Amino acid sequence: MVRTIPVRTIAAAVLTMALAGADPAAAASPPTGPTAVGYGGAVATVDAEATRVGLQVLRDGGNAVDAAIAAAATLGVTEPFSAGIGGGGFLVYYDARTGRVHTIDGRESAPASMTATSFINPATGAPYAFGEARVSGLSVGVPGTPATWERALRDFGTMPLRAALRPAARVAERGFAVDATFRAQIADNAAAFGQFSSTSALFLPDGAPPAVGSTFRNPDLARTYDLIGRHGTGAFYRGQIARDIVATVTGPPVADTPVGTWAYPIRPAELTLADLAGYAVRRPAPTRVDYRSYQVYGMATPSSGGQAVGEALNILERSDLAGLPREQALHRYLEASALAFADRNRYVGDATPRPLLNELLSDGFAGERACLVDPAKAAAKPVAPGIPDGAYGGCPTAPAGAPDLAGQSTTNLTVADRWGNVVGYTLTIEQIGGNGMVVPGRGFLLNNELTDFNFAPTQGSAADPNLPAAGKRPRSSMAPTIVTRHGRPVLAVGTPGGPTIITTVLQVLVNRLDLGMSLPEAIAAPRATQRNTATVPAEPGFDRAALEALGHVFTTMAEIGAATGVELLPDGRVVAVAEPVRRGGGTAGVVRPAGLP
Ligand code: GLU
């Protein structure tokens, strides 16, 4: 069925934005709010400083990729617990000149020493506790973020890496004001951070998190950015920084006098200079599904974002969500999420063959899965995976496996430029605070991304696609997503939140494309996340009663995700949207603000 975004919805969005303070006189003033509308390009991130830097790059003539990398580098300074050069991520790019969508897989990779049993404690034969695996050398994958920035700029940008890193280095040098979120993220991690001399020195000065309102400086990180800017990422993957990363993982910088106590021994791991030197980003074709009159592009493996969002949309396309009562639309959203997660857990990992991924995203497979959605009641969870064998008809299922429940951190940014290029970029160091180790003298935290592998098989007698192995990339849920219509970009959206990333992106898309909400409304709306589990975590404001009557059982999760998005309006304006409230709220800005015509 072909449907356009209803005009009244666009008007509602514009009104929301006008009310949010889109003031033409504010053109050169720093962005402050979660929504902005105007011309000349747009940036939405979780952080005012990063959005300001991205907008300045656009104003100076840079394109969306230049602005995205400069903003991401700034997030590495101001949001160091969620993003930074010690981690990895996925970037999706719509190229206005060719009308094509490209992706960069900058996911961390496992060292050559990793095996399927690396997360099994040899002393007990049981998997390590999550905290034990996280705060150790074992969890550290070879970072992909510096290589992502360099490759994105080289393939799609106009700026040299040095210029893209300069504004962020300046922020690290001069410092920024500590806010409540920054302080809380340190306080929540104080026990882990306190074990390491390098991390304590940076984030626990005088043994405690810095006060709200104080100025936080990171001159080591400024020098690290400068070094990478001058010498390229060779300094990171083959030079001094590589040696420092290897030294940190093989001999964690445990403090002589730790701040607080940690429940587990801190284990080193075998990461080598060859592991770092061998890292390369990949450029997989995006996933694509056609959803009503839209094309939805996402990340292929090792992320499951494109598969799970795309498969769920294919299932949902079989219902006229806009024409159904609201609780029926949400019921189908929850059921489609569960089905897509069952298939993700069974079939999706770094080594998933592309033909299998294509089957999971096929309309035939979605038809089989959709016939398991009963409008009258929620299916018992977990639901079993389907059989994506290319021969479709009926509702066959495979034996069930266990659900996957990982933690959450990460950050997402979204950028559009005056030429119509669009970037969605989700980057992470996995947990908030990564593995807790700052590389001494370098000013950045290492990731714990390898804990995204399953520590032990989860799929019964079937193969688990996400067990650790040498050189393998752990499965991700990150889902930077770009939607086009007739080949032109309509919107982009992404979020942090571990596996809830998938449901948040899906829910925002359904809210926007089917349920008549503006993009600010779609992002602000209360969320629920069904990841093939018996109960459904939902935010307090999510309307449960009618869904409970259909058999859904809810638990409460205070916040789910922290999305950003951009929408390109038919009249040439662009809307930038960040969270109004979650994670302290984000910041959106446009180059030339313009409210209602
Ligand atoms: N490591 C997670 C993933 O790749 C992201 C963490 C998060 O968003 O909180 O799926």
From TrEMBL:
Pfam families: G_glu_transpept
Reactions it catalyzes: an N-terminal (5-L-glutamyl)-[peptide] + an alpha-amino acid = 5-L-glutamyl amino acid + an N-terminal L-alpha-aminoacyl-[peptide]; an S-substituted glutathione + H2O = an S-substituted L-cysteinylglycine + L-glutamate; glutathione + H2O = L-cysteinylglycine + L-glutamate
Regions annotated as coiled coil: none
Tagged with keyword Membrane: no
E.C. number: 2.3.2.2, 3.4.19.13
PTM info: Cleaved by autocatalysis into a large and a small subunit.
This protein's pathway: Sulfur metabolism; glutathione metabolism
Keywords associated with the record: Acyltransferase, Glutathione biosynthesis, Hydrolase, Signal, Transferase, Zymogen
Signal peptide: 1-27
Keyword check for Acyltransferase: yes
Membrane-spanning intervals of the chain: none
Family affiliation: Belongs to the gamma-glutamyltransferase family.
Subunit structure: This enzyme consists of two polypeptide chains, which are synthesized in precursor form from a single polypeptide.
Protein's UniProt name: Glutathione hydrolase proenzyme
Organism of provenance: Luedemannella flava
Lineage: Bacteria, Bacillati, Actinomycetota, Actinomycetes, Micromonosporales
Gene from which this protein is expressed: ggt
